[in-house]
Amino acid sequence: MSQADVRRRVSPTFLLSELRLIAVRRRNQVGLAALAAVPIVLAVAMKVATPDGPDEAHGPDFFSQILGNGFFVALAALGVELTLFLPIAVAMLAGDAVAGEANQGTLRYLLTVPVERTRLLAIKYAGLVMGAFVAPLTVAASGLIVGFLLFGAGDVTTLSGTQIGLGEALLRLLLVCLYLGVCLSALGALGLFLSTLTEQPMGATIALTMLTVTSFVLGQIPQLDWLHPYLLTWHWTDFGELLRDPVSPGALTPGLLSAGAYIVVFLSAAWARFAGRDVTS
Q1: Which of 80, 161, 225, 251 has the most C-beta neighbours closer than 10 Å?
Q2: In the chain, where are the structural domains located?
Q3: Is 2 or 240 the better-scoring residue by pLDDT?
């Protein structure tokens, strides 16, 4: 292998180009803005519709604590968006990954630059992973800003009933976003595989969204408790363990292992499918 081939393999130019394309695409910008808008709508609704004092609030634990500390707007927004909006954001990126290139007629051009198929898939998945981490971080940042503005900040009461400083709470929120980023990266691996099966990006996006919703629905059926640990979305809500005192790292291990397994299986399936696929567009 020549030095030019080695430089081409490790050059970050293709990756930077892919990330730039994702960042400047208008629908991705609109999607990111929509993710950021949900915490704002949630916080304003809580401020306007809920009487002063947390005793009058109803709903999940995070919601019931919003009135006392704006920090919980970020957590409540992540919980709300995790069931639909965040998966849709990843599904949109995944649908465009390979199917979008094929639909626009640029996939064959990319492969004749030349770009090896394995390298192309790796770059596309790297873009998906970037989106998977940026999405929850955007929601959390928006939630913190609007939460602090409307409800103030202070020491945070954990799910165990103890109090921690705001600095430690922010660090835990960052860990929550990183954990969800790993979970959404697993979803991205499944989406990348689906994107290799079609030349219609919308079809891949819809299929991935429906599979995510189906996973959540199956997780609500008690009779299928034997299946629950194997569902893609089953461990996503384990992020709440990071808000306990002390934090038990072992409680997050099943979710990380599940995400890792999904990533390995579906990246392998995507490679097997794409490596032998006839590219016609």
Answers
A1: 80
A2: 3-275
A3: 240
